[in-house]
Amino acid sequence: MRPRAGLLLLLLVLAALAGWWRFNRQAAGAEAEISLIRESELGAALTAVGCLALSPDGSRLAFITAADGRGMLAIADLRTANGSSTPGAAVIIPGSEDARHPSWSADGSRIAFATDDRGPLKIVDTGSHRVSNVAPAGSGGSAWNSKGDLLFAAADQGLHRRDARGRTIRVTLPDPATNEVEHAWPVFLPDGERFIYLARAARPSESRLYLSSITAPHERRVIAETHSAALYADGHLLFVYEGILMAQPFDADSGRVTGIALPVAVGLHWDEWTGEGAFTATHDGLLAFRLARTPPDQLAWFTVGAMTTQAIGGLPDVHEARRSPDGTRIAATRRDPATGMDDIWIVSDAGAAPERVTSHPASDNSPVWTPDGSALVFRSNRSGVYALHRVDLSSLQGGEKMLLDSTVDDQPTDASGKNGLLLFNRWSMDTRQDVWALPLAGGAPFAVLATEFLEGNAAFSPDGAWIAYETNESGASQVHVRRYPIDSTTYRISVDGGNRPRWTANGHTVIYVRDDNRFEAVDLEAANGTLVPSRPRQLFITRPRIGDLGGFDIDADGTRILAPTAGPTGTPEPSITIIKNWKRLFRMVSSG
To answer: What's 294's DSSP letter?
Structure first.
């Protein structure tokens, strides 16, 4: 499934782009039809990386939107009405809070969807909009066959099948001998018996796409070495290769690829960790996908309340930023538009030229300053998984080393001078994402918060006495605060969802961002041995033009937010591209 050589891939991409250009110039005579559905036409924001699903007849589109800070299932009718080419406004399904990964039944009467990473699998009747719980589910999607069987990623990281009578049977489990951690993204072939799924490994390079069947699931065959989810549609496998949507001829009868992969779209919205891509297709030639948003132009300080910005120039394509302890420098993650790989740079708040810190071919991101500002801890997948690394800023040449080797993904989130600890997210097959700590002076890592729920993105208060973190213990992701060392008392401080908490320098306020990109602050007061949080208050009357919020930061007193801008005025509105008879694009590439 992988292109045979980098040069071949480049030539194919250029050829596809050339064909696309010819298509746009000769649209009247072409058989392929391309249209855009803009976010404003849907009447609902497009959220999440993938979470797109065309109905089997191509008349409706299911997707995930944000409502009151939580993901919700939405359905848009793509059929034109009264001669209009604009789709009807999407209908948001009540009772679908925290929805993700929708899939349609073969007759289009039902949609299955997961809820968060440990919530139940649910089914909604597309006529009555009645929602019902089915079974505990994982985070790797689902698929229906024509008999009414539902194959889904389960909470045990394997695949389960719910038959038409409502009986649930385990079908697969990850194989530890091949380093598998999850079976995900199942898709049925037309016979309704055989299916394709992704066996995700701890090291993405070891992930495989398998062909198996519900009658003999113990028998499986590798059909591709890839870390991408795949769809079978119209005689092809569709998958993502480094952000490029590819199509490869596939014989469904023999279960084998029969030709080379060709590019369909460049710059696809894709989650490189889970393998999920923002694309969906029907069996009669309809394809829909979402391209990644235009990369942010630069970093900026956003002043709370005033809605003013102070640009920090010189470093485009940034998607993470962390302020140094003394406030004079910024560690930023820049994504190379050509390769999709991340590197870490340092930017001066005073306007000096940016300085590159890492240059490895792998992805280096998620920088965290050591308490004295002399070094950065970051994560890199140069060893196959995301492991913790450290770079000494006084000697960038030779000052870089692996800090903690691991067989699972780790991600640094904060460092405390008072406790001498580095906090980091650790992925676990049993408890998914947990909060761990590593002594900065040396020593073994240890778990800080490791329950059946998701915990992560923890940060110490300036005095080291408290820890703020996000967890889905109550359903949606919310911000909680606990005393450190951890005791049994927890204080939930967010109301309508919250992620990535940051403390102000005085330790009296926590600022976080909601799923709908709204910033909130909560004031904390210690009284009689307990913590009394205020009601959350919004920091901006309207949402500022902020890009990726995965790595925002704040200044010492919380009056400014440091984040990438969302691009200049005039940046294209988020949209979904729909191509009818998409295979005709290949003919145009070869027609000259």
So the answer is: P
